């Protein structure tokens, strides 16, 4: 085996703070794509991994899902967290490979089908109106992230699950603590053990919900999960709780990050904002560009099930790879002028939802939420500007803006 390429620029991928400084992050990722697209990273407290930064290589790994598996390390976490989650037995959809992944994914698939999305459309439009009205009533200034972007998609996904509205604030707190475990503002303590507390509390909440739905099933996704069977056997408690956890977090934090980042992009590109407001027929392309621009899921991990190569670089069986979506979505070989926000971009071959068998289950719902929110907001938005410094969350997995102070005029 040839000597592995080790490029110091790749260390940003093992630094949660790097995602709070987009200039630093993308300078490093651009250098990696040009000089070391497959680079070995060994930075404690993480176990070593190969950084995969080019779009073509990310796609090649995604396609080879039998060679590069999700199990046992789907997300970059400190080694202690890897071991703790394994000991608990957490196994969500992102931890699974086929055939188990296909079988478990099918449990909720109908709830995210085109037919179901059409049925959800009216409710999502009502929620979009509700939050735009709240912006109007706020008096022309707000922290767009905390007052709008985190709440609107939270209400959508909790409505889908059938969680009582009185419990939404608790779900928001827990999802932010789980996704924000690397961020000083969101995490509970510096302790890995304490970080798991939020997950334990979420599991306890959904255990109560499961018991309720098994005793008295209702017409919601929680009932489908609670009463699901595989080969005639119900899901175990940990399987059921894991399913709820991935729906609650993935269905909320990714979309809120896209809406917040999309709002910032439209404020910073007023001509495109005005054009989109005047022609909502551009919304589909604009939505895809917001998703590419933000890339809320920064990376996923894969593990080599056998000796393999990526871009000519040998990867040994058992070694881990980090697929940098943040880098792939700025790849100069795929996107013309990739650092330009462009609501007309077509084609837009972003990998923000992944690719292949693990393509995001909730992609259609996320697209609908983003599109309907801005379709309601923009025709009513007379002016908008930043009212303070935007702040990004520290992360190595899912994230975006955590604060976006804005000033606006809204009808």
From TrEMBL:
Biological classification of the source: Bacteria, Bacillati, Actinomycetota, Actinomycetes, Mycobacteriales
GO MF: cholest-4-en-3-one 26-monooxygenase activity; heme binding; iron ion binding; steroid hydroxylase activity
Cofactor dependence: heme
SUPFAM superfamilies documented for this protein: Cytochrome P450
Organism per entry: Nocardia flavorosea
A Pfam family per the record: p450
Stated family: Belongs to the cytochrome P450 family.
Annotated keywords: Heme, Iron, Metal-binding, Monooxygenase, Oxidoreductase
Entry-linked InterPro entries: Cyt_P450, Cyt_P450_B, Cyt_P450_CS, Cyt_P450_sf
Record keyword rRNA-binding present: no
UniProt keyword annotation of Plastid present: no
Protein name (record): Cytochrome P450
Domain of life of the source: Bacteria
Gene Ontology biological process: cholesterol catabolic process
């Amino acid at each position: 085996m040839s000597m592995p390429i080790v490029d110091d620029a790749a260390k940003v991928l093992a630094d949660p703070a790097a995602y709070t400084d987009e200039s630093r992050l993308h300078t490093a990722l651009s250098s990696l794509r040009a000089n070391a697209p497959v680079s070995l990273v060994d930075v404690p407290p993480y176990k070593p991994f190969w950084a995969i930064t080019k779009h073509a290589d990310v796609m090649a790994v995604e396609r080879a899902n039998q060679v590069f598996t999700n199990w046992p390390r789907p997300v970059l976490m400190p080694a202690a967290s890897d071991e703790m989650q394994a000991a608990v037995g957490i196994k969500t959809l992102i931890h699974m490979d086929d055939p188990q992944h296909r079988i478990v994914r099918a449990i909720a698939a109908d709830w995210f089908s085109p037919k179901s999305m059409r049925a959800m459309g009216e409710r999502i439009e009502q929620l979009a109106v509700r939050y735009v009205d709240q912006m109007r009533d706020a008096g022309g200034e707000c922290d767009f992230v905390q007052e709008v972007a985190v709440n609107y998609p939270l209400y959508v996904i909790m409505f889908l699950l059938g969680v009582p509205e009185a419990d939404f604030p608790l779900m928001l707190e827990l999802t932010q603590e789980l996704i924000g475990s690397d961020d000083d503002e969101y995490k509970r303590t510096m302790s890995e053990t304490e970080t798991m507390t939020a997950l334990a509390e979420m599991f306890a909440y959904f255990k109560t919900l499961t018991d309720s739905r098994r005793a008295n099933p209702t017409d919601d996704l929680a009932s489908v999960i609670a009463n699901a069977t595989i080969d005639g056997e119900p899901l175990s408690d940990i399987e059921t709780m894991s399913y709820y956890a991935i729906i609650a977090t993935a269905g909320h934090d990714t979309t809120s990050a896209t809406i917040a980042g999309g709002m910032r992009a439209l404020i910073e590109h007023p001509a495109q904002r005005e054009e989109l407001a005047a022609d909502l027929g551009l919304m589909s392309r604009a939505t895809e560009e917001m998703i590419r621009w933000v890339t809320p899921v920064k990376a996923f991990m894969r593990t080599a099930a056998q000796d393999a190569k990526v871009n000519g670089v040998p990867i040994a069986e058992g070694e881990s790879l980090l697929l940098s979506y943040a880098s792939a979505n700025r790849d100069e070989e795929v996107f013309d002028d990739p650092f330009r926000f462009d609501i007309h971009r077509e084609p837009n071959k972003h990998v923000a939802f992944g690719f292949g068998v693990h393509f995001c289950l909730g992609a259609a719902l996320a697209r609908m939420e983003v599109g309907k929110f801005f379709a309601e907001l923009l025709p009513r938005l007379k002016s908008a500007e930043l009212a303070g410094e935007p702040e990004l969350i520290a992360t190595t997995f899912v994230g975006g803006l955590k604060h976006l102070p804005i000033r606006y005029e809204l009808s």
